[in-house]
Amino acid sequence: MASAPSPIYLDYAATTPVDPRVIQEMARFMGPDGLFANPSSVTHAPGRAARAAVEEARAEVAALVGAREREIYFTSGATESNNWAWRGLVAARRDRGRHLVTSRIEHASVLDTAQALEAEGFRVSYLPCDREGRVDPERVREALTPETLLCSVMHVNNETGVIQDIQAIGKLCRERGVPFHVDAVQSAGKLPIDLSTLPVDLMSFSAHKVYGPKGIGALYVRHDPTLVLEPLIHGGGQERGLRAGTLATHQIVGFGVAFRIAREEGMADAARIGRLRDALWARLSRLERIRLNGGGAPRACGHLSVSFGGVNGESLIFFLGDLAVAQGSACSSARGEPSHVLQAMGLTPGEAESTLRMTLGRFTTVEEVERAAECIAQAYARLSVLAPDAARRQAG
Amino acid sequence: MNAARSPAAGMAGSSPFDVWAHNLERAGRFAPNTPGVHEGKAGSAGAGAEVEFSLQLRSGRIIAVRYRFFGSPWINAACAFYAHALEGQLSTTPWPTGAEVARQLDYPRTRYDEALIVEDALMAALAPLREVSNE
């Protein structure tokens, strides 16, 4: 009997499967016969071996992004990294001002932190984006003041894949002496990043978006000149006293291997994924009343944000069966609200709710793209004819 | 009205919501010029949900129901449930409220409003008939 087709996973921006090579290496650091010792226990050989593995992984993470090893601090993930970048910097520099700058299209871990700081009396400027999802560096220039403590703009948007001009924004911040934080969760391993030349002071990374394990990330903190951050978590003095907590050796090792693979294969992967993404769009673009969000801007390789006029995205997903796609980010899906990113780009709440985010990755195949396009076209056609005339007219 | 009648056999999913949300049996519209059709609608696509009900009546009895919708699977589940439950009933038969349907289909509280929009569309289609019968 023929087996049912396996689900098609097109939600790589939410998380990626762990690369089997990463799993294989991580397993060496967990069992009783492995290098499971606490990397802070350097009084014995197993602890020193674990410590060496941690430092090797730190070197791999640093190498992918052109940083120095001592500039990489391990965290529990990008949410912590983003929180730490903001709160750590504000705590260290609160005597210099009470103003922060970010964009309206950031990840919830940045926007919620910004709102929490507003509640504590800080003033936050939220920069708009244009219809293609780009933040104009000129708006950054206008927003920066002598009171500004931090500017934070993401590199690649998690919903649309639109790439921000962090070189230009960072240059403006550098000229004004304002530290610049970049959430690089969606760009690391997909776009070249060279922190030895980029004017960026803080950068957040996550392993699980790059075929590494969940629960581990890093914050890059520029050391030349040294940027002072207060710790967010206090305790055992790990990570040079800035991030307490027993280092999760197996996670960190997995992170390191994932970033090494990304350094060695990421650009070739990106080219292949980009071709698949374009092939998927070529098929979908034949459908009526659809719009590619951010299509007029440079985008990272795997993202496809498409609004399907006249149907609700949640229903479309519901009738897609074994196709794993998202409506917005995983985080906004959990909140059940129309995407703040798409609304910032000028879409109505209804249009935002009619949008699917499809993100392709390392293990996406040509056959999956063809099947996905067919499934989407069928479900869209089925639901389109069921929409009231007014809803279809509104969709144009 | 036996609101608990279920077309579950052969349907995807197992929860009441799953069964009804996958059911598109009565989704769509009647052929043009179908006699005895009464329509009602509620909501708007711009606000995220819009429903149109079409009821075909003969001798005061609802003989067929069709609906069209823009909205989430929660909207469709309530539409499909109502459409199934109404067929064969007299137009004067009391129908379950949106809140009752939401409870019966195990809607989370945050989704109750969607069942209410469906109820509003149904009321819009049925209300003129009831006014006539009350005169």
Describe it for me?
The complex is a heterodimer of chains A (396) and B (135). With 396 residues, chain A is an alpha/beta fold. Chain A has two domains: 8-15 and 266-379, Aspartate Aminotransferase, domain 1, CATH 3.90.1150.10; 20-261, Type I PLP-dependent aspartate aminotransferase-like (Major domain) (Aspartate Aminotransferase, domain 2), CATH 3.40.640.10. In chain A, 40% of the residues lie in helices and 13% in strands. Chain A contains 13 helices and twelve strands. Chain A has a seven-stranded mixed beta sheet with strand order 2-8-7-6-5-3-4, with helices on both faces. Chain A starts with 7 loop residues before the first strand and ends with a helix. Chain B is α+β, with helices and mostly antiparallel strands. Chain B has a single domain (16-31, 40-130), classed as Sufe protein. Chain: A. Chain B is 37% helix and 21% strand. Chain B contains four helices and three strands; from the N terminus they run αβββααα. Chain B has a three-stranded antiparallel beta sheet with strand order 1-2-3. In chain B, helix 3 (98-104) packs across helix 4. The longest helix of chain B is centred in the C-terminal third of the chain and has 23 residues, at 112-134. Chain B is globular. Chains A and B meet through helix 8, helix 11 and helix 13 of A and strand 2, strand 3 and helix 2 of B.
